């Protein structure tokens, strides 16, 4: 029991000593040139706009209820 308690105390002390080292800030990232910042991950904007327009069109197509069948009568 005494060995486990000593081992636990040693591990706790080592963790507390290592915590400030792990909490240090990482080096700052370099800024990208303005010309490269307007491009979305190397893909042109028109591709994303076309995909968004296609998705909106599919939602409208699926949401519209244009069935050729006559609706069921509500009252007899």
Automatic annotation (TrEMBL):
Signal peptide span: 1-25
Key words, A-Z: Membrane, Signal, Transmembrane, Transmembrane helix
Residue ranges crossing the lipid bilayer per the database entry: 46-63
Keyword Signal: yes
Protein name: Uncharacterized protein
Native organism taxonomy: Bacteria, Pseudomonadati, Pseudomonadota, Alphaproteobacteria, Sphingomonadales
